[in-house]
């Protein structure tokens, strides 16, 4: 009996980890330091990941975004010219002549954060409307030399966040009318968390 119970618990725990990639840190084709860019240089995440405020996906920045700076900054403090030269090679840029060539190739970045197809997540809904900080899900990016998956990104983790997170309604025109209705329903001093505005409805994330 003890063996059966132990086996069941061990099996359940093993199955529960399937599809969870917390801590995943793959090797990338170019060594890009978020600590240097987002931390030391204090570049806003949304400068490179512009889709975070406008679309479902935050998007991986195109090399043209990198070139806004690296057309002039040709040497880094840690890797020298080695990693920046890989950008130049991918887009066929000649720094001496300041010219692009015709033999351009995409940079094969390795995706780190990946939700299952059955789950829907919209960055703009959280970042623009919900005013959620990038670090809430992605961790202290400004301290990461190499980017990795900080949070488990499981359903339970998302649900708990919706139960705990207060909706930032004050001064947010998107919620003006809704806020008035919710104050009548829950009281003017009530803490309005995401679950109170439908954040736990199955069809919000699964459709």
Structural commentary:
By secondary structure, this protein is mainly alpha-helical. It is built from ten helices and two strands. It has helices at 2-16, 34-40, 45-48, 63-70, 82-91, 123-129, 134-138, 155-164, 176-186, 202-205, and strands at 93-94, 99-100. It has a two-stranded antiparallel ribbon.
- Annotation, overall tally of beta strands: 2
Widest beta sheet: strand line-up: 1-2
> What class, by secondary structure content?
mainly alpha
The gross shape turns out to be globular
Q: End-to-end distance, in Å?
A: 41 Å
* Amount of helix: 25-40%
- SS field, number of helical segments: 10
How much strand content do the residues show?
under 5%
Q: What composes the largest sheet? A: 2 strands, antiparallel
N-to-C SSE series? HHHHHEEHHHHH
Using only CA atoms, what is the Rg?
A: 22 Å
Q: Residue-averaged pLDDT, rounded?
A: 91
Unreliable residue stretches: none
What's the SSE blueprint?
Elements: H1 2-16, H2 34-40, H3 45-48, H4 63-70, H5 82-91, E1 93-94, E2 99-100, H6 123-129, H7 134-138, H8 155-164, H9 176-186, H10 202-205
Antiparallel strand pairs: 1-2
